[in-house]
Amino acid sequence: MKYADVLPLRPTTNGNGAYLPFADSIGRLEALDWDFAGAKTGFLTHSLHPYPAKYIPQIPNALIQELSSVGETILDPFCGSGTSLVEALRLDRNAVGVDANPLACLISLAKTTRITEDEASLLKEMAQRLVSEGQILSSDTPMLFPDLPTFPESDRPSFDGLNEWFDPHVVDELAYIKSRCLKLPAPHLRQLALVAMSSIIVTVSRQDSDTRYVRRDKNLKRGDTLNLFSRALATAAQRVLEFSDELQPYRTVDVHAANLLDCPDVGLVDLVVCSPPYPNAYSYHLYHRTRMLWLDMNQPEFKKQEIGSHRKYSSKSANAATVDTFRLELRKILEWLTHHLRHNRYACFVIGDSTVRGVRIKNDDLLINVGEEVGFKLEANIPRTLQSSKKSFNPAIGKIKQEHIVILRNTAGSA
Ligand SMILES: C[S@@+](CC[C@H](N)C(=O)[O-])C[C@H]1O[C@@H](n2cnc3c(N)ncnc32)[C@H](O)[C@@H]1O
Predict the structure, then answer these.
(1) Is the overall model pTM greater than 0.85, yes or no?
(2) Residues lining ligand 1, judged by CB closer than 6 Å?
(3) Which atom of ligand 1 is nearest the CA belonging to 259?
(4) What class is the 23-101+250-282+300-410 domain?
């Protein structure tokens, strides 16, 4: 089966007369080669912004095709950079995403937005102008371009650590870029341009990489930041335009910036597809810290809300998080899900193992166990090998070689 085409509607009963419209799909999903070796993963808007531990689009694509019908609504409660939402819209479904990380929500919105040819041209012209300005800056004749060096002090950000993480000329250029993004005439264009800006922030900062919050000098020249941004903006405009051409105009996407532990109201959905955070794996609040501060987001609040963060689990304090912390959080979220997912429909989780205080945790077993406590029934637990070039890095256990696709059916609820 090629997970690129939309499948026809499924029959609505199985042999026993129970209402299990997608019963045959489970066998097909179990037989699928989930490695997707060699598959292209960065097409359309998928590569607009880096996001640690994002999954490849083929995973939600296969699950959405097999376990839902055209026109239904797909929820990703940990939507991160919006991979499931993009695939849901491409497959002519409606999409709902939730994430406590405001940057994740901004990226998800930008990746699922629609723009016209004229709007794409406006963004590309802005990118072109910034390239010229970058060239003037790098030619060391700033007098030809007086605006940037006299950029008002009040427009520079002033967060803790700004000067440790950024060279002064990079601060000037980023502040200038941000002011230009905010002058764009419509909210979706501003969001898209800010996501292009955010996408280059780790590259132009002294942060080593997207998952290493340590400093190293990058020796950027004047003008490099403007050039990198203009390239990111032009590419984003083109990718979103191509994506817009694929979409049905009447499909909707809702992104909720919310802590799942507050049980946000997301309405009723037909399928859940997600990869949840798991204990001691990543620290999004840290990897995204400088990006969030540049974008005026409440980073300390997200730090408090983030589930599974390496920081909370490796803390030496008496109230450091434990596996029980994770179990309780998961239980609350799965119970909440039973109220929002239609009866007898499926919730799919892509999840790997982790290590907490030297003990290996099989998160798939834990998830299944907690799910069964709140009314889910296990339909499948499919192991998946990560491609060697794309192994996720987990600071607690190094390279993860395998993860699981756990498919649960909601036997609770009645809708
Ligand atoms: C593994 S990532 C999801 C990546 C996503 N599948 C993608 O392709 O980009 C897990 C997400 O859970 C989010 N998260 C952590 N704690 C949360 C909470 N309390 N409420 C909502 N989302 C949370 C993180 O911000 C992160 O984006």
Answers:
(1) yes
(2) 51, 53-55, 78, 80-81, 83, 98-101, 104, 259-261, 275, 277, 284, 305-307
(3) 20
(4) alpha beta
